[in-house]
Amino acid sequence: MENRFEPVLRAAGVESATLGEQLFALVDALDSSGALRRTLADPSADGEAKARLVAHVLQGAHTSTVAVAQELVRSRWSADADLTEAVEHLAFHAVLASAEATGTLERVEEDLFRVARALAGQRDVRRILSDDATSTPEARVRLLDAILAGGATPAAALLARRATAKPRGRRFVTTLGHVGDLVAERRNRQVATVTSATELSVAQRARLEGILERAYGQPVQLNVIVDEHVLGGLRIQVGAEVVDSTVLSRLADARRRLAS
């Protein structure tokens, strides 16, 4: 579906951000109504009837948004939640495509990582930005805007606001990381998040990039987080894969061995 959506995004150019916002609105409608979600994902229901229903839900939306949504609901889904996830996935890509059209996609990646890095030692702030139970979306967005301080690209600001306004059961920083992976995917790169006790030198970064590029067979974007609690070594995460060589990790492993 993503590949079929790309020509639509290229044709929309900068306006693909509007398509993304309209698809996010559909995500919200699906999340707020179990009956609607089950009906649109029901494999036994008539595809054209579902297409008419989703067009009604998206009344007033761009014709491209409606067409994409109709193609999605005509498809077969093993679970109704899968449909919602697919709509959200395309919404993220639509906003990123708008940044690609303006040549700011790399800036978006940098902006999102900058926010995540700024929150590394701010546990209470991270909790508030992810807490849909005790704070309002408006309050969380105001807090985020204070953190951004007007220094983010429009696409990065839109995606970060979405991540805190509608966390959908995820942590705010987790969603930023997921979007960062989508940026890397669009740039045909892997993202490696490296946690170190100190800043890496230019030579160290180049050496690590070379090792990871040989291991993964494609260019790698290094995002380095400095954490003084890491006593030595590096923690490297590429997608779901973690290579942890920190001193703390080795100490924890030694304790487990002694306890066994």
Model description:
- This protein is of the alpha+beta class and 260 residues long.
- The chain folds into three domains: 1-102; 103-187; 189-259, no CATH class.
- 65% of the residues lie in helices and 9% in strands.
- The chain contains 13 helices and four strands.
- A four-stranded mixed sheet has the order 2-1-3-4.
- α12 (202-216) links the parallel β1 and β2 (220-226).
- α6 (80-101) runs antiparallel to α10 (154-165) and α9 (137-148) runs antiparallel to α10.
- The N and C termini lie far apart (49 Å).
- The mean pLDDT is 90.
Topology, pairings included?
Layout: H1 2-12, H2 16-32, H3 34-41, H4 47-57, H5 63-74, H6 80-101, H7 105-118, H8 123-130, H9 137-148, H10 154-165, H11 172-186, E1 190-196, H12 202-216, E2 220-226, E3 234-238, E4 241-244, H13 247-259
Parallel strand pairs: 1-2
Antiparallel strand pairs: 1-3, 3-4
Helix pairs in contact: 1-6, 2-6, 3-6, 4-5, 6-10, 7-10, 7-11, 9-10, 10-11
Radius of gyration over C-alpha positions, nearest whole angstrom? 21 Å
Strand content: 5-15%
Q: So what's the oligomer here? A: single chain
Largest sheet: 4 strands, mixed
Low-confidence stretches: none
In whole angstroms, how far apart are the ends?
49 Å
- Counting structural domains, the number is 3
Number of E strands: 4
Q: What order do the SSEs take from the amino end to the carboxyl end, as H and E? A: HHHHHHHHHHHEHEEEH
Walk across the major sheet and give the strand order: 2-1-3-4
Number of helical segments with 4 or more residues: 13
Helix content: 55-70%
Q: What is the overall silhouette?
A: globular
Q: Give the integer mean of the pLDDT values.
A: 90
Provide the structure class. alpha+beta
Membrane topology: Peripheral membrane protein
InterPro entries: ATPase_OSCP/d_CS, ATPase_OSCP/dsu
Subcellular location: Cell membrane; Membrane
Keywords: ATP synthesis, Cell membrane, CF(1), Hydrogen ion transport, Ion transport, Membrane, Transport
